[in-house]
Amino acid sequence: MSTDPSIADLQSGPVPEALTLERAALGFAALGAGARLSVLLALVKAGRKGLTVSDIQDRMGLAPSTLAHHLRSLAQAGLITQEKQGRSVVNRAAFSHLAGLGAYLLQECCAEEDACGSPGSPMSFSDRTR
Predict the structure, then answer these.
(1) Residue 126 pLDDT
(2) Which residue has the higher pLDDT, 22 or 117?
(3) Cβ(128)–Cβ(109) under 8 Å?
(4) CA separation for the pair 124, 115 (Å, rounded)
(5) 35-61: average pLDDT
(6) pTM across the whole model
(7) Are 106 and 117 in contact (CB under 8 A)?
(8) Domain map of the chain by residue range?
(9) Nearest in space to 17 (alpha carbons), one of 94, 76, 127, 83
(10) Alpha helix locations (H) across 1-130?
């Protein structure tokens, strides 16, 4: 079992939220730009401690206005949270929402297969319930 804080959050944290089609579409649309996906991946890697805007800027090399635009899009889609700490804003991946997006995609996995969850199917039952 991995000790990565983001994985630990998903395994022991709250059950992923149930999503509507519209809310899921908003989340996936926010990931439609490579730069936003890269920012989100950096926040996932950072775990619970998150990253300040300047930390992200140093890692990504994005112009401040471009980064602000991407962070705003991710926050509006519920993929990240932002917390003001003094003069800094700490950004964190919204692990429960991300897990909810994954669960949304997989909720009907293999539903039309007779042997869903069998060793030969694309995803076993244990993979779908993590």
Answers:
(1) 47
(2) 22
(3) yes
(4) 10
(5) 96
(6) 0.73
(7) no
(8) 5-128
(9) 94
(10) 5-12, 21-30, 34-46, 53-60, 64-76, 95-106, 125-128
